[in-house]
Write a structure and sequence with these properties.
With 215 residues, this protein is mostly helical. The chain has helices at residues 2-25, 39-50, 52-69, 74-98, 102-132, 136-140, 143-175, 190-214; strands at residues 28-31, 34-36. Strands 1-2 form a two-stranded antiparallel ribbon.
Length: 215
């Protein structure tokens, strides 16, 4: 049991480091201070393996590393990063960890996208006026045309990537002895699931490109 707990902590530390590296090298400016980065993919996969608490721990460590190294948004950015990531990853990890089926993975990620979009509208309304130094009315006018679509698209892209990468990553971790073998629902249409994942990803990528051009 102690050995397994040690392996779990090591794996979670590795995933935090990987999430940080991914975030450093893949940061695409969109509008204002908003940037797309795919660190939530790694954190979600950690949550799929170990549960929602892992999402919290990996997110805190990754966001802290960002805060003390490359962040230009300070404590505001740290807070918003953690809230955004948990809003996306925790619902997905909770549903999938409860029952490891493709259906729950899809439902959980869909709930995560909706949760992040809704929660970040609220948090941007409350926090962004302080960060940007502008009246709250000005931020309120950007909630629907800017913040809402950004978080929907960011969440959708990360959901699609998670669906594609989870199985290869967890398989590699299990072969390395860093993750336990868990009973997972068997699906007959693996190829169809990959096609569905690619369709989700490509649709949100297209929306992302349109959004960049419009905004």
């Amino acid at each position: 049991m102690k050995d397994q707990r040690t392996k779990q902590m090591v794996t979670m530390g590795m995933m935090a480091a990987l999430a940080y590296i991914v975030m450093v090298f893949i940061r695409i400016p969109v509008v204002l201070f908003l940037k797309y980065e795919p660190k939530d993919v790694i954190i979600t996969i950690g949550g799929f393996i170990y549960g929602p608490v892992a999402c919290l721990l990996i997110s805190l460590l990754t966001s802290f590393l960002e805060l003390v190294t490359i962040s230009s948004t300070g404590l505001y950015g740290f807070l918003m990063n953690v809230v955004s990531t948990l809003a996306f990853t925790v619902p997905a990890a909770f549903l999938y960890h409860k029952s490891r089926t493709k259906r729950n993975a899809l439902l959980g990620l869909g709930l995560g996208v909706a949760s992040m979009a809704a929660i970040m509208v609220l948090w941007n309304y409350v926090i962004t006026p302080f960060y940007m130094g502008v009246p709250r009315e000005q931020v309120a006018g950007m909630l629907v045309p800017v913040f809402l679509p950004f978080n929907l698209v960011k969440g959708g892209i990360n959901a699609g990537i998670t669906l594609l990468l989870y199985k290869p990553i967890v398989t590699a971790l299990r072969k390395a002895g860093l993750a336990e073998k868990k009973e997972e629902g068997k699906g007959k249409f693996q190829f169809g699931f990959v096609i569905l994942s690619l369709a989700i990803l490509s649709s949100f990528v297209l929306w992302f490109l349109v959004m960049i051009k419009v905004l």
